[in-house]
Structure formats: structure tokens, C-alpha cells
């Protein structure tokens, strides 16, 4: 279950969502909402209210090298936005204090 969540997403938007008990995670692309819910509850010892998922397409990348133009693509990612039940929070960034 713990291998489903790759990492928490720490961005400005994600930090603002934390005030509403919502947190963003990067997850394995094959995971479904039920598996994500169980993994978050087990890993962070909280109760999950809802899970929203989205798939982020990979981008085309061009690199100019000595050998010429190299074409590639970044991999597809999957994000999960998790809303916790009332009274639960997750401390994602250690040392983050509100001033």
C-alpha cells in the first residue's frame, strides 16, 4: 500500500489547499481512488473524506546536442488530491511554521 504514493506535492498551490484539509500527492499511474485512500490512511494515520485524481500528460522535449537534435518525452504522471475528514491534518513540510 505504501508504494502507491510516490511523494507529496509541495508547491504554492498545494500549501494553500492545506488550510482546507486538502493535500496533493504524486501516485503510481495504475492506482485507483480506493487504493490511494487506503495508502494515505495507513501512511499518515488519518481519515480520508474524498479523493480526486488526474492524469498529467508527458511533454515533448527537444535537446540541442553535438550530435544534433535529440527528441524525447517526459513520462505521464498521476496526481491525487486528498480531502481529510474534520479534525485531521498532515504535516507534510517539517519545520513549516505559520507566522
Written description of the protein model:
The chain is α+β, with helices and mostly antiparallel strands. It has a single domain (2-84), classed as RRM (RNA recognition motif) domain (Alpha-Beta Plaits). The chain is 18% helix and 39% strand. The chain is built from two helices and six strands. The protein has helices at residues 12-17, 33-44, and strands spanning 5-8, 22-27, 48-56, 60-65, 68-73, 77-84. Strands 1-2-6-3 form a four-stranded antiparallel sheet. It has a two-stranded antiparallel sheet with strand order 4-5. Strand 4 and strand 5 (68-73) form a beta hairpin. The longest helix has 12 residues, at 33-44. The protein is elongated, with a radius of gyration of 17 Å.
Amino acid at each position: 500500500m505504501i508504494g502507491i504514493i510516490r511523494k507529496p506535492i509541495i508547491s504554492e498551490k498545494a500549501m494553500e489547499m492545506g488550510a482546507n484539509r486538502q493535500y496533493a500527492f504524486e501516485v503510481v499511474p495504475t492506482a485507483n481512488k480506493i487504493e490511494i485512500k487506503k495508502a494515505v490512511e495507513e501512511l499518515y494515520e488519518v481519515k480520508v473524506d474524498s479523493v480526486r485524481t488526474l492524469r498529467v500528460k508527458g511533454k515533448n522535449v527537444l535537446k540541442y546536442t553535438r550530435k544534433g537534435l535529440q527528441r524525447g518525452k517526459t513520462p505521464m504522471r498521476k496526481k491525487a488530491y486528498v480531502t481529510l475528514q474534520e479534525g485531521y491534518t498532515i504535516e507534510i513540510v517539517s519545520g513549516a511554521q505559520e507566522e
